[in-house]
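Long-time lurker. I teach an intro course on protein structure, and each term I like to show students one example going from raw sequence to a predicted 3D structure in token notation. This year I'd like something fresh instead of my usual example. Would anyone be willing to generate the tokens for the chain below so I can use it in lecture? Attribution to the forum is fine with me.
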Amino acid sequence: MRRFISIAVCLTLLACTVSDTPPVEVPEEWTAWQKDSLAGYIDDDLAVLKAADYRYIVDGSKVFLVNNDDEFSLKSTEPQAYQWAISYNEGQLTAVSQADDWKEVYKQLPSDPIPLSDSQRLRFNIENISHSEKRVRAILYDDQASALTDFPGLSYFPYNATGIISARFKADPAMPQIVLDTERGLTKAFYRAGYAVFELEGKSYQMPLYTGSSEPKSITSFFTGFVDATTGTESYGTGRYVPVADFGEFPPKTITIDFNYSYNPYCAWSDAYNCPVIDFEIDAPMRYGEAYKLKE
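-- Reply from a regular --
Happy to contribute to a lecture. Here you go:
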């Protein structure tokens, strides 16, 4: 009889333990961020997976927009017939039609999307390859791009409030010019504004924080990323980025890093982007934010 009473008491205690465990509260903002991220890959006019073709235009060179039965493509060498010749010279981007006297000079980049057909559009943006070299990237977006069919969707680690870290901002007064290697064998230019100094699982870290400008008044966010114990297995093989913003006037004294918003570079799913490789390593499994799961 005592044995059955003991079992009953244990079951009662177990039930109390389970029922007293508070559920994880998932912020609405985090759920909305996931939806926006997915739209940025498949739904938006400039969705990542709609980037069906692209070319870089170095200073003094041209690319050519070709039209075959209302299907557009980009060529690096001059074909016999083409729609536009697009040149980049001394900071000026110009498109000239082969068929008539039409000419357009694009003074502001990135450009607005340029409609080509019911499903295709062209856009130009500027890429800071180094602090002395800029290139224009022409991207052709297509609502019928094949990558949309093969996309397995985005996957995430469960939301966990332990991923929110308060860090001390350590300024780099020199604001040095930094050129990071990218996944496409190119480079990309930044300035190092400082470091996020924090501790995690008993270890101290100084996470580099980059910006696109060396002018303090224009700095409203930082670009940074990391590799960790999940990299290459549960998360993307070259690491992830994590946003750092909403810190007020630069330089801040402290910053908040929410690793639940960690995300993969666009290069995880598209060749059309030039994604910096950040080798800052966190010696722990950072199971927060976006994971990486290939189509089975």
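Some talking points for your students: Confidence is low (pLDDT under 50) at residues 1-21. The longest strand covers residues 187-200.
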